[in-house]
């Protein structure tokens, strides 16, 4: 068991990171002072903004920040000279630009989204302070870009040259851990007599990790380790990891139905098959041709034994072997890709069920939430700017800047208010510390080295705090705000009035941002999770109503991406919540089975297509009901349509289309009706297919 003390206590690498970051910050300060740059403290703060324990991540973050800052500075040059005589229009223009950039950033959801966010709030940081002196509309933004570029270069150089920690090995270790965890989940699923909360929790964690790894891979492209040239294979491995989740979770439902149909006693061949697959997964080794032939023979025997018992058992046995085949092929590909990444090889992959994979995996985009967050940024900026304009406060620009910036920084959270309040408290404490430094300690300091040593008293502990998620906000608050509050220049100019005015304006801006967020932006994890779930249900409805062949891969990755977004939120939602009661992976499997049914439908006979259309209509109707009422359950009409279609497909001549459709409908049946027994109906029940359309209406 890990204690909280162990979790928070810094490691040697945490201390090394903090010292490296401090060295980079002081190097940036020295160069800025030597070249007499306008605001040297911007360079210091930038180092702490882009700092990251991994050199590749630090470089990628730095590049994105530089791009965003340059775009934001260019927008300042465009807006301020043209709108300086109309402060209301200038405020509106800057607020609209910030809202637009933030919205694009939230929709992008990759590390490069940082560029869009920076482009937005950099315009506020460089535009509002020069309203009274529009003649500096070019020099002021350029100076900020120069100082930020200096901080970025210093941070990147020190990160790469002084005890570098590459992202590649960390990614490789995380992938190894993921492969082991998914193997353990598959083994537990195969050996478990029923679905358990522990298995569902493990699946949620793996989904969240898979989504996180997709973003983490971006940093590897900027790394200097051996994995840098294997980014393509790494992303292919992530795609296989994503595909593994619905397969493993589907086995849990399938085995539940299979054991129920056989009164808890699987056939001998099915048990042998589970044992062999479990051994392969436990050994974490690829299987040869001899083992492959042995497994194929067991699969054929298991299907035959299932058919000998009864027709439904035969259908379940066929689905069972098909899912195990998917599992083994994906598992083999994962091992091959992992070896390729380590050795630089390029082996042929086995699993091609969902067609060609692609570099840019489709992700979930919440346009409503992006617009909502943009409106919150605009509102907070308007309130702060109105206070500044109507009071004529000389330092009011700082309030307008910070109100918008704070809303942008925490916009990715469901409820940013608690973290924003922490940041505000840290900033207030930082003001007190900066006051002691500015008027108590710095007057006694003469020379660059004593100045650096005195700053280290605050910045080195702040760097250590940045390495832990639990304390990151405190370290970042001091690392970024403290140098700005001191307004470090080449010579000390203690001005109590200016110090209090500027820092009070900053705190008021933070208060406005927090208040606006609480009133119009904060939403709960349950609210966000439900929006993501409804988007997934809408996808299933669209697929069920779509007549041409759907894109399997796109829906798979988009739905698993949604599952990865929902998974960490479920931990914060009460168990009794209606959202927590939804089987998200079950919906994912139903969507995939609906697509598979659509794909095979075109090759069936006209009568068979009619029965399949009844099933698809029932699926669309059910998920439309879920969109309106999240607790909706599938009705008897859909069950009868499924059974009618199954009976028809059982009596059809075997073909790949018939088998594929039969497999998909069988999966839909035991997913949606896990406890319903299948009985071969007589001809009079064939009319029951009409009930599905009524159920879907």
Average residue-wise pLDDT: 82
Q: Quote the distance from N terminus to C terminus.
A: 54 Å
Largest sheet: none
Poorly predicted runs are 1-7, 355-359, 682-697
SSE pattern, N- to C-terminal = HHHHHHHHHHHHHHHHHHHHHHHHHH
Rg calc: 30 Å
SS summary, helix count: 26
Shape: elongated
Strand content: under 5%
For the secondary structure, the number of strands is 0
Structural class: mainly alpha
Summarize the amount of helix as a percent range.
over 70%
Overview of this protein structure:
With 697 residues, the protein is an all-alpha fold. The chain is 75% helix and 0% strand. The protein has 26 helices and no strands. Helix 8 runs parallel beside helix 10 (231-261). The chain starts with a helix and ends with a helix.
Question: What is the topology?
Answer:
Elements lengths: L3 H5 L3 H23 L5 H11 L4 H29 L3 H22 L4 H15 L11 H23 L5 H25 L5 H24 L10 H31 L6 H16 L5 H21 L1 H33 L23 H25 L4 H14 L7 H25 L6 H18 L6 H15 L9 H26 L3 H21 L6 H19 L13 H18 L4 H23 L7 H15 L5 H17 L16 H8 L1
Helix pairs in contact: 2-3, 2-7, 2-17, 3-7, 3-18, 4-5, 4-6, 4-7, 4-9, 5-6, 5-14, 6-15, 8-9, 8-10, 8-11, 8-13, 9-10, 9-21, 10-13, 10-21, 10-22, 11-12, 12-13, 13-25, 14-15, 14-19, 15-19, 16-18, 16-19, 17-18, 20-21, 20-22, 20-23, 21-22, 22-23, 22-25, 23-24, 23-26, 24-25, 24-26
